[in-house]
Amino acid sequence: MSLRTDMANDRRRQLAYRARLLTEADWFSTVAVCAIAVNAILLGVETYAGFADRWEFQLKLLEHLLLGVFSLEILVRAAAHADRPADFFRNPWNIFDMVVVLSAFLPFLSENTTVLRLLRLARVIRTARFLPQLRIIVTAIGKSIPGAVSFLLVGTLLLYLYAMLGWASFATADPEHYGSLGRAALTLFVLMTLDGLGDAVNAGLQISPWSVLYYASYVLLSSFLLVNLLIGVVINSLEQARVLDEERKAPAAPGPEAAQELRDRIAAARACLADLEGLLVQVPAQPEKAGTTP
Question: Which option is the CATH number for 12-130: 1.20.120.350, 1.10.10.10, 1.10.4160.10, 3.40.50.720?
Answer without folding.
Answer: 1.20.120.350
